[in-house]
Amino acid sequence: MKPEAPPRRRRARYWQLSHTADLAWRLRGDSLPELFEIAAGALVATMTDRRYLRRLEKRQIEVDSPDREALMVDWLNRLLYLFDVDGFLGREFHIISLTDRRLEAIAWGEGFDPERHPEKTAIKAATYHQLEIGPRGDGWQATVILDL
Least buried of 25, 42, 83, 129, by fewest C-beta within 10 Å? Predict the structure, then answer.
């Protein structure tokens, strides 16, 4: 049985920034929950082509952290953990609830299959280096650096 479809979102808004050794993303969302969803999408898009991922599995994800910045890092590192341990990659993400210290989300995706999913960049971890999250105009913006 297929899990229910996630709500449709417009195209993700993230840009790769120039960085000497690691990979940096600038992310923008209309809301803080959308910013976290976009961050997850950028993470997976760094690892493989998300268009080849199917929505075969639904994962409930909960993350607790001391503050908003730690929550972003812990969220991305939890997604990396799911990949490292279970091979799971999310195609789409929906934040159910979000505070500055807690996140509850659903990820739809499937296990990594090297015959169907192109391998792109291996990521070790999301980092605190130059991490920024804050309001910008009528939305939210973040800068996240990934350790490769």
Answer: 129
What are 59-73's pLDDT values in tens digits?
999 999 999 999 999
Superfamily designation of domain 32-123: Archease domain (3.55.10.10)
Q: Which residue has the tokens 């000497």?
A: 20
Instruction: Please state the domain extents for the chain.
Output: 32-123
- The DSSP result for 32-67, as a single string, is HHHHHHHHHHHHHHHHS-GGG----EEEEEEEE-SS
Q: pLDDT tens across 7-20, in order? A: 555 555 766 666 55
Measured over the CA atoms of residue 86, residue 87, residue 93 and residue 99, the dihedral's sign is: positive
Greatest CA separation for the chain: 45
Q: Among all chains, which residue has been given the structure tokens 């959308």? A: 34
Amino acid at 16: Q
For the beta carbon of residue 118, count every other beta carbon within 10 angstroms.
10
- Helix, strand, or coil here: 80? helix
Give the pTM. 0.87
